[in-house]
Amino acid sequence: YRRLQAKETRLSEFNRTERKAMLGSYTKVLFVRDPFHRLIATFLQGMGISPSFSSFVQEVLDSRKVHEAWKPLVSLCQPCLVQYDYVVMFGFLRQELGHLLRRAGLPAGSLLPELTDSQVQWTYRWLAEQMFSELSAQQKQRLSHFYRWDLAAFPFPSSFLSD
């Protein structure tokens, strides 16, 4: 494709015909994670300078520039533009990655981490409860609004932001 050689060419820069031809030859996999869990991970990785989760969330909500670490998934992965073959949910990685590896003809068992999905889900549920309790009602409402398109596009039934 004519612009494929250029550095960091965005998918949106190709016309519809070019996109369809280019993406048609790939298996497209999208990994998604509850937006609230993404915020928690970003905070724990020290991406903000805030001493508390609540003040970090306030920084995110007040920031004029949206950092990729907490940007809504819909704006990052363009699910309306790209027709993904698989959507893999964080928390079901072992199960879903095993399926993908078997479809690709690879040995699934030896390539997957030992941690079980239920342990991951339980840990994040507990952590999310703790962090969510730190937030004000206004912060909770603003976060739900900020991630409204992610919550509409992907099934996060147990997300605190869905409530």
TrEMBL record:
N-terminal signal peptide: none
GO cellular component terms listed in the entry, alphabetical order: Golgi membrane
Entry EC no(s): 2.8.2.-
Localization annotation: Golgi apparatus membrane
Keyword Glycoprotein: yes
Cell membrane is among the record's keywords: no
InterPro entries: Carb_sulfotrans_8-10, Sulfotransferase
Gene Ontology molecular function terms on file: sulfotransferase activity
Coiled-coil features, chain-numbered ranges: none
Pfam families: Sulfotransfer_2 (PF03567)
Membrane topology: Single-pass type II membrane protein
PANTHER family reported for this sequence: CARBOHYDRATE SULFOTRANSFERASE
Name of the protein in question: Carbohydrate sulfotransferase
Organism in which the protein naturally occurs: Molothrus ater (Brown-headed cowbird)
